[in-house]
Amino acid sequence: MKFLVYSLLLFHFSSFVESSKCTDCIASGKHWCVTVNECGFSPCVTSVSKPLNCPELPDKAHAYDDNFVRTKIVPMTAAANNVNPEKCFKSRIPTMSISKTFSTNCSEVGPQSNCFGFTSFDTTQKVLVMSFRGTDSPLQLTDEILDFFTGKKQFFPDAGNIFTYFYDAFFFLWNAGLQQDIRQLKYKYPDYELWVVGHSLGGAIASVAASYVVHTGLFTGDKVKLVTMGQPRTGDYDYATWHDKTFPYSFRIVHHKDIVPHIPPQEGADKLFHHRTEVWYNNNMTTTDPYHICAEADGLYCSNRQLDTDIPDHLTYFGVFFPDWHFTC
User: In angstroms, rounded to a whole number, what is the distance separating the alpha carbons of residues 83 and 199?
Assistant: First the structure.
């Protein structure tokens, strides 16, 4: 047991030292060669040129827990596909209660496009929840894709830029009653932790939501757990940098060949960039399947190293086919 603890401490210390060396290397104008863990080594099979891609793992106090995600996060994420989310909790998280649901048009122009989310609370676990539904129609998906070509909108003065559609979608929900309800829940349960979850579009909205309530001082970053599944790239490099400095517990789960985490593409002068930390299940996500905690933020590693992508893998996470959750939970 002592050897195991020592090994874990040594591993995290080594990870910290390696990340520091990598950051210093890039600051000096060179690249960090991941293949041999050396600065400026050439030729290099896999190199890092951005500080956020320097190898770094979450600290032990904020480690990823597969069982926690399966038993707590998955039901709350999938429940956003049901207009009556509380129905999904009864057999899975019976201590969780719905506070309110929010449904609103989140398309600024063109045909109506609906966004949906809910808040809930659990007095046993001392937790508040914000959960957001993913893209629910081909029309909404088209709207998101077309919006990519219109650029991004400034988010916070010190936190980079957010993809316009995700930015607007959050604020449509925020102004549709989410703001008032989460403030009331915070007032009633001031010491509770906040869990923010979402799948697909919902994952992007969850990222914005968590960032906004912390940026405005409603919660502190250490009191928030952000877990998303199949999240598309949500903001630029500056946003990812701010996010990683703010949230000690933040995981983006990617299923096998899911195509959505690779869009919008990293193109243009102001590229979109994922924040940490990716958890990649390069399998069917059964209870016995392994997973990989990616030490890099958004380089050619983990799920990004695959050339093949898949839509069905986006719709199913941990054995749950999210579009059918409306009928099956």
Answer: 16
